[in-house]
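Q: Could you fold this chain for me?
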Amino acid sequence: ELLFQAGHKSAYVWCEKETATHGLKGVEVFHHYMKRLSQRGWGQFRVEAVDPQTGRARVQVRHSVFAMERRNARSCYMFRGWFPGSLEYVGTLLGKRLKLTASEVQCASEGHPYCVFEVAPDVYNH
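A: Sure. Below is the predicted structure, expressed as structure tokens.
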């Protein structure tokens, strides 16, 4: 939970700063964030689906630095807060106040070809 909160805040603030620096609009911010995460060596992030109005998304992570270290257990929980944090910031750009969560539904450390995260509204924290 501590990693979720730290990652969430980090993503939100990073997106806020990058928006000001690059003049990004709406969901462009989320795609830019995924690109930069990939460039920084955390893994290769690919947005399979995103709905900026609801905050729902599905993100694929190939070559996760965390999945490469463990076997037979989901190990990429470090990323969990990043997706909601960045998409909640996108929501503010659209005039929405989203409260999101994410779950790792598949991990490469369990033998899958890549990790998958799903982002959805957090029904427990509204």
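A (continued): The mean pLDDT is 92.
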